[in-house]
Design a protein that fits this description.
The protein has 15 helices and six strands. The N terminus is likely disordered.
Length: 438
C-alpha cells in the first residue's frame, strides 16, 4: 500500500464522532424554521378601481399598503409607478361585475401567492355582497347561489423596457417546482452512483490495477464526467419527448386564443349588471386557457439552457463530494457518518423550494439561490417567475468557483482514501488528508 505517514497513528476500534445528533437536529429544526420565514418587505400598491365598487374595501396589512388613485391617471402611472414608490398597480376594470378576468396586478416582479389570495378573497366577498344587495329577499336560495363569485387576477409583468406580458402564477409554480425537484432528484441519483461505483472498485481491489495506469485525480474526474454525460443524454431525450407532447397537446386542445367580447363601461355600471341573468365565464376554463397561453411567453431555449447549466453545476459539485465519501470508506455500512452532512443542504433546498414557488422574490429565496449547495434547486425554481440576469450570472459564477474548489478538495481525499483499507476514517483524519502536502 502506498500510504502517507501519519503522526500518532493508532488503531481505531470505535467511531467516536459525535456530530450525528447535531446533524439530525438540524434536519428537524432548520426546515421548520425556514418554512415559517416570510418576506417582510413592505409593498405599496396603487389601486385604480374603475368600477367604483371596491374603493376603501381592500385594507392594509402589516406588509401590504394600498393607495387608491383616480382612474384617469392609469396610463401615465403605468410608466413610472416604480419611481413613485409603488411596488405595483392593482387595476380593476368596469367589467368586474360580469367578467372574472377584469382584475390586473401589474408589477415588475412576481407577486407572492399570499398577496394574490388576499386580494382575491376581498374582491370576491365584496362583489358577492354587492350582488346580494341588488336582489330582493325572496327566493333566497336562488339568490345565494347566484351571488357566488370567483375572481381571476391576471398577473401582468413588465420587462425593463416596459413590455407587458401576462404571466400565469400557477403554471410558473408548477414549472419551478418540477425544474427544482428534478435537479434535486438527479443530483442525488447520479451522485450516489458515483459514490457506489468508487466503493465497488475499492472493495473488489480493481482500483489497485487502475491506479497503476492513471492518476487518482484523473480517475475521479473521469468517473464523474462519464456518469454526468449519461444523465445529460437522458435529459436531452426527455426534453425532445416533452416538446413533442406539448406541441401535440396545444394543437389538440388549444388551437387558438379567442378575443374577449368588448363591452362598454356604461353597460357594467347599470344596476341590472348584478342580476343572476348575467352569465360569467368559467374561472377554471379561463385559468386553463391563461396557463396554456402563457406557454408562448416562456423562453424555453433559455429555460433549457439554465436547467442544463445548473444541473451540471450542481451534479459536478455534489458528485465530487460523493466520490470523496466513497474513497474514504470500505463498505456501504460506513457511509452514514459522512453522507448526512452532504444530504442536509439538499433536503433544506427542497424545504426552501416550497417557499420559493409561492414567494420567489423573498430574501430567503434570493440568498438560497446564491449558496452553491442549494442554488441549483432554488435558482431553477425562481427562473420561471423572471429573475434578473445579473443574479443568474452571479449564482452561476459562485457555483463554478465552488465546484472547482470542491473538486480540488475531493481529489486530495480521493488520492489518499482510495488505497486505504481496514481502517475507518474520521473527520479528523480526513482533515489531515486535506492538509497533507505531497
Amino acid at each position: 500500500m502506498q500510504g502517507i505517514p501519519y503522526e500518532g497513528e493508532e488503531k481505531i476500534l470505535y467511531n467516536n464522532d459525535h456530530s450525528g445528533p447535531f446533524l439530525f437536529a438540524s434536519i428537524l429544526i432548520l426546515p421548520a424554521y425556514v418554512s415559517k420565514m416570510e418576506d417582510t418587505d413592505i409593498k405599496n400598491i396603487a389601486v385604480i378601481d374603475s368600477s367604483h365598487i371596491f374603493t376603501g374595501k381592500i385594507t392594509d396589512t402589516e406588509f401590504l399598503k394600498f393607495t387608491y388613485l383616480e382612474a384617469s391617471g392609469f396610463q401615465e402611472l403605468k410608466h413610472d409607478f416604480s419611481q413613485k414608490g409603488y411596488w405595483g398597480i392593482l387595476y380593476i376594470e368596469p367589467s368586474i361585475t360580469c367578467s372574472s378576468g377584469a382584475v390586473e396586478l401589474i408589477s415588475y416582479n412576481q407577486p407572492a401567492l399570499s398577496m394574490k389570495l388576499y386580494i382575491k378573497n376581498i374582491l370576491e366577498k365584496e362583489l358577492e355582497k354587492q350582488k346580494l344587495l341588488a336582489h330582493h329577499i325572496e327566493n333566497l336560495d336562488q339568490i345565494l347561489k347566484s351571488i357566488k363569485t370567483d375572481i381571476r387576477i391576471k398577473i401582468i409583468q413588465l420587462s425593463e423596457k416596459g413590455k407587458e406580458h401576462e404571466s400565469s402564477m400557477e403554471f410558473n409554480m408548477f414549472l419551478g417546482y418540477i425544474g427544482g425537484f428534478l435537479i434535486y432528484f438527479f443530483i442525488f441519483l447520479f451522485g450516489s452512483q458515483v459514490m457506489r461505483g468508487v466503493i465497488e472498485e475499492k472493495t473488489n481491489r480493481i482500483i489497485e490495477v487502475i491506479i497503476s495506469s492513471v492518476k487518482p485525480f484523473q480517475l475521479m474526474v473521469g468517473k464523474i464526467v462519464g456518469i454526468g454525460m449519461v444523465g445529460l443524454t437522458q435529459f436531452l431525450i426527455w426534453i425532445i419527448l416533452t416538446f413533442g407532447f406539448v406541441n401535440i397537446s396545444q394543437q389538440l386542445f388549444y388551437p387558438g386564443k379567442s378575443s374577449n367580447e368588448q363591452i362598454s363601461s356604461g353597460d357594467f355600471m347599470r344596476k341590472d349588471a348584478f342580476t343572476p341573468t348575467q352569465n360569467t365565464p368559467s374561472v377554471q376554463s379561463e385559468e386553463v386557457a391563461s396557463a396554456l397561453g402563457s406557454l408562448h411567453e416562456i423562453n424555453f431555449g433559455f429555460m433549457i439552457g439554465a436547467f442544463l447549466f445548473f444541473f451540471l453545476g450542481g451534479y459536478l459539485l455534489y458528485a465530487a463530494l460523493f466520490a470523496a465519501i466513497g474513497s474514504a470508506v470500505d463498505q456501504d455500512t460506513d457511509i452514514q457518518q459522512f453522507i448526512l452532512p452532504v444530504t442536509v443542504p439538499l433536503i433544506l433546498a427542497i424545504v426552501v423550494l416550497i417557499n420559493t414557488i409561492s414567494n420567489p422574490e423573498s430574501q430567503l429565496s434570493f440568498w438560497f439561490s446564491m449558496i452553491p449547495f442549494t442554488s441549483p434547486v432554488i435558482m431553477m425554481a425562481r427562473i420561471p417567475f423572471g429573475v434578473p440576469y445579473f443574479q443568474i450570472i452571479l449564482s452561476g459564477s459562485i457555483l463554478i468557483i465552488s465546484f472547482i474548489a470542491m473538486t480540488w478538495m475531493a481529489g486530495k481525499i480521493y488520492k489518499t482514501g482510495i488505497l486505504m483499507y481496514g481502517k475507518k476514517a474520521t473527520y479528523k483524519e480526513i482533515w489531515k488528508w486535506l492538509n497533507y502536502k505531497n
